[in-house]
């Protein structure tokens, strides 16, 4: 044996091993209790923008509002009425507190964030007069502990209402004027990573988002505007066991937003007031329908689904 006057201890192995949990397992502990993989499961938390200074003065044509003037106090009251329905039902209502003063469309929160089981995908609006709204949504999400998985970047365009959950493993994402190929690919990457199959839908030339054309009522029933939804998408929904209800009135779908409702829980929805034919069809099919007057919000060419970003369902 060599005489070793200077024996040096071996370098020890690693002692601090990584915590090998998934993001979904961790989210509650390090962020908050958020996550969505359904358009209908029990509504637990939402993000909304109560119209602030931005609604007081704008050029309707530039921001894609109708030219009837908005009653500022009434739009705020109607927005509060909707929020109260959610909170009375037991959902937590969070707000985007700050916003640019030149962005009246910021009330349409769904367009700015698409929520997944692991957190939010932050949108990048297609319309120039909306770009930048998302910065204040990011601020609000960070404050309440909703992780932001990606912020649509590069040459991508994507708005949250171009996504629709079918079930935990299935999502429809639509391209058109509010979501281009690059935005679509960025969303698809995130969803596929979570084990979600993405079905592509093409928006008709006359429509910007999915929610005015097709909206799930429960986990096996969906309302569609048949004339504007692609065959392949409906075929997929039927094969997954969905019953298809066809909206009976084009006027209601297009003018009074009969398809733009919010499910509080499966088979129980809040519908914009003034859609009698749609309401009758839904009730005949056993749907519990509550209505709310959103005449002022409608002047922004959007309705209930558009103003409600889901943060937690089920
Ligand atoms: N999810 C919706 N359908 N949003 C409607 C948004 C309407 C808004 N004026 C816009 O053009 O962006």
UniProtKB/TrEMBL annotation:
Any single Pfam family the record assigns to this protein: DDAH_eukar
GO molecular function, one term: arginine deiminase activity
Gene3D superfamilies associated with the record: L-arginine/glycine Amidinotransferase, Chain A
GO biological process: L-arginine deiminase pathway
Record protein name field: Amidinotransferase
Species whose genome carries this gene: Hornefia porci
